[in-house]
UniProtKB/TrEMBL annotation, chain A:
Protein name: RsmB/NOP family class I SAM-dependent RNA methyltransferase
Taxonomic lineage: Archaea, Methanobacteriati, Methanobacteriota, Stenosarchaea group, Halobacteria
UniProtKB keywords: Methyltransferase, RNA-binding, S-adenosyl-L-methionine, Transferase
InterPro entries, A to Z: MeTrfase_RsmB-F_NOP2_cat (IPR049560), MeTrfase_RsmB-F_NOP2_dom (IPR001678), Nop2p (IPR011023), RCMT (IPR023267), SAM-dependent_MTases_sf (IPR029063)
Segments passing through the bilayer: none
Record-linked PROSITE patterns: SAM_MT_RSMB_NOP (PS51686)
Automatic annotation (TrEMBL), chain B:
Any Pfam family: DUF7122
Organism expressing this protein natively: Halovivax cerinus
Residue span(s) of domain rRNA small subunit methyltransferase F RNA-binding PUA-like: 148-201
Lineage of producing organism: Archaea, Methanobacteriati, Methanobacteriota, Stenosarchaea group, Halobacteria
Every DUF7122 domain range: 33-111
Biased composition (Acidic residues): 1-14, 25-37
Protein name (database record): rRNA small subunit methyltransferase F RNA-binding PUA-like domain-containing protein
Region Disordered, residue ranges: 1-38
């Protein structure tokens, strides 16, 4: 937990934060609305004999009392998909509508991309891209298991993504759930900090800036871009958004989030960020007994 | 191991018309030179022609063929697919897609692989059957709890079935509703599970 010491000044109740990071994460699933209602999924889990609790902040998040959420009829039929509770947040913030064109820039293994398709009633176009060919097979497997028919899967570098394959020249919305240092996944993956160093954080921030910038460019005027990571590092979060605010014509906009969270930072060490970054959300593990996440919502200038 | 091969005799599925590919000429030529009566190109998705008369690739099945197959074999109403397009990638692999795309298009995948038409007997996929098989009224075999568990584990089982032989939708009742499990092959008193390895579970 040594790398987390630098967050002591910004995290309320830092000891509770550290303690939460040391506790293993519970098992959560998202109900896949393409195949089932929350009631159907819960009935299937009852038939499976698996106890569950519905998250109070979102009816389609279920916390299961089992270590193998994949070994249920609900999972077999694609009624449920194992997905970390906070990772359900970014697609909800993006809030796509049926019929829209939506880009998921870093989509593998597909939990959020299929959630986007479900939020659109599987109507419209979700272009689910990932640069990692090896992870695309997981994305495709999940998309088909969950019954998503509105997904097109592409394998490109999101930083210079071309829409030439499609007939439209801009997306209505884009999700950049960026590759990151994954500090917020420590409860699921205790090795997440083994490779941690500031050089890695800074180099991955360069990639993040490139992807977010391209997402803003590829989204129509007035369209929406959501930027998220599962890490706490301001270099990968506020600093990335701050950079893109400087170089592209877009603005940070507020959103409702019923999970407990902190506002985004407007200063960190010797840096200061655009004041609008206080509209972003930092979700810490001790606040809702989840993993950690950062989410910012941008509107592309009309 | 489930056997992908269909029964060799006693053919219950009248699919000769659909798979013969008897080479109707292309209607006329809006088609670009590289796809007029061309071969199917393996690495890209091409949208199925509306009917056989519209096709520009020799042997390619049409949308009408596909919709008719799902209707005739399983009783899935044709209007189920009104807002979907069908695509071919690879020889005879048909995909169902709800989004937008020009044809042809080179992407990793487009919607869901739904049907294999290369074999003598067309074969729907497990994922398709789970997604759309709830609307089927024919060739659905209902399994009890034990049978369903064996089916998704990949085991074959002896069963009585007085309907057509060939590819069937296996289903069970979950929380009071009939839910399709996947595709099975029924021949000679045996239901073979065709659940792909990656989808099998011990439940």
């Amino acid at each position: 937990m040594e790398p987390f010491e630098r967050y002591r000044p910004i995290v309320d109740d830092f000891e509770a934060f550290l303690a939460a990071c040391e506790r293993p994460l519970g098992t959560a699933v998202r109900v896949n609305a393409i195949k089932a209602t929350a009631a159907q999924a819960m009935a299937a889990l009852e038939a499976d004999g698996v106890a569950y609790e519905q998250a109070d902040w979102h009816s389609r998040v279920l916390r299961l009392e089992t270590d193998s959420p994949g070994s249920t009829w609900a999972s077999y039929h694609g009624f449920t998909h194992g997905q970390e509770e906070v990772s359900v947040v970014p697609p909800l913030v993006l809030d796509p509508e049926p019929g829209e064109r939506v880009w998921d820039a870093c989509a593998a293994p597909g939990g959020k991309a299929t959630q986007l398709a479900a939020l659109m009633n599987d109507r419209g176009t979700v272009v689910a891209n990932d640069n990692n060919l090896g992870r695309l097979s997981a994305l495709r497997f999940n998309a088909e298991r969950l019954g998503a028919t509105s997904l097109a899967v592409t394998n490109d570098d999101a930083r210079n993504y071309s829409l030439a394959s499609f007939e439209f020249d801009a997306f209505d919305r884009a999700l950049v759930d960026a590759p990151c240092s994954c500090e917020g996944t420590i409860r699921k993956n205790p090795d997440a900090l083994d490779e941690w160093n500031l050089g890695h954080v800074r180099s991955i921030a360069g990639v993040q800036k490139g992807i977010l910038r391209r997402a803003v460019q590829a989204t129509r005027p007035g369209g929406t871009v959501v930027y998220s990571t599962c890490t706490f590092a301001p270099e990968e979060n506020e600093a990335v958004v701050d950079h893109v605010l400087d170089v592209e014509d877009c603005a940070v906009v507020p959103f409702d989030l019923s999970l407990e969270h902190d506002p985004g930072l407007t200063e960190w060490n010797d840096e200061s960020y655009d004041g609008s970054l206080s509209k972003a959300a930092r979700i810490y593990p001790h606040q809702n007994d989840t993993g950690g996440f950062f989410v910012a919502k941008l509107e592309v200038a009309a | 191991m489930p056997d992908d091969d269909p029964p060799a005799d006693d053919d219950p599925i009248a699919d000769g018309e659909r798979t013969a590919g008897d080479g109707d000429p292309a209607p006329d030529c809006e088609a670009t030179s590289d796809d007029a009566l061309a071969e199917n190109v393996g690495e890209r998705f091409a949208r199925l022609p509306r009917t056989r008369a519209d096709r520009t690739v020799a042997g390619r099945v049409s949308r009408a063929d596909v919709v008719e197959y799902f209707d005739e074999r399983f009783g899935i109403p044709p209007e189920t697919f009104d807002s979907y397009t069908f695509w071919e990638k690879g020889a005879g692999k048909i995909w169902v897609y709800a989004g937008e795309a020009p044809s042809p298009i080179e992407v990793e995948s487009l919607g869901m692989l739904c049907l294999r038409t290369r074999q003598e007997h067309w074969k729907p996929t497990t994922d398709f059957v789970q997604r759309f098989g709830g609307r089927a009224t024919e060739c659905v075999i209902d399994l009890d709890e034990d049978g369903a568990a064996r089916f998704v584990a990949g085991d074959d089982q002896e069963l009585d079935w007085d309907g057509d032989w060939g590819y069937l939708i296996a289903a069970h009742t979950l929380a009071g509703e009939r839910e399709p499990l996947g595709v099975g092959l029924y021949v000679y008193g045996e239901l073979r599970s065709l659940i792909p390895k990656g989808r099998r579970r011990h439940l």
